[in-house]
Amino acid sequence: MRLKLIPINSDASLAIHKLGDVLTINGLPYDFGPLPDGATLPAEAIGCPWINQPVERINGVLVIPITMPHGAEAGERSRFPADIVDAPDGPIALPTDQDPKPAAGKVIEVTDE
């Protein structure tokens, strides 16, 4: 499986879990097992807001483009991500996992002086 990450500046969160040819994206499973070699599945047929381009199986390898949100302070790896190839089953580590998290708002003390 090859996940082609397409970065987008957004505060949305993305969590991906892989089990064979099934990707669970933000808690919803998508089974690509039935897609035969050489076939293309249009994004509209998938119904996943994170998959906006067709999914293909090329020479036995699933190629899945996934929109990956990153914050304004994203690092280079998140803004220009490499494909994730042959990830093991389990949670998929994304480049955004290493990005700095936005700081919580400052607390301003108000006094009656």
What is the gist of this entry?
Helices cover 7% and strands 35% of the residues. With 113 residues, the chain is mainly beta.
Strand order, sheet with most strands: 5-6-7-1-8
Average pLDDT taken over every residue: 89
User: What characteristic shape results from the CA principal axes?
Assistant: elongated
What is the end-to-end distance? 64 Å
Question: How is the main sheet built?
Answer: 5 strands, mixed
- Per DSSP E runs of 2 or more residues, the count of β-strands stands at 9
Q: Give the proportion of residues in helices.
A: under 10%
**Structurally, how many domains make up the residues?**
1
Structural class: mainly beta
Question: Could you list the spans in which at least 5 consecutive residues all have pLDDT below 50?
Answer: none
State the helix count. 2
Radius of gyration: 18 Å
Q: What is the H/E string?
A: EEEEEHEEHEE
Beta-strand percentage range? 35-45%
Q: Can you give a write-up of this model?
A:
It is built from two helices and nine strands; from the N terminus they run βββββαββαββ. The chain starts with a strand and ends in a 22-residue tail after the last strand. It is mainly β and 113 residues long. The protein has one domain (2-98). Helix content is 7%, strand content 35%. The protein has a five-stranded mixed sheet. Strands 4-3-2-9 form a four-stranded antiparallel sheet, with no helix packed on it.
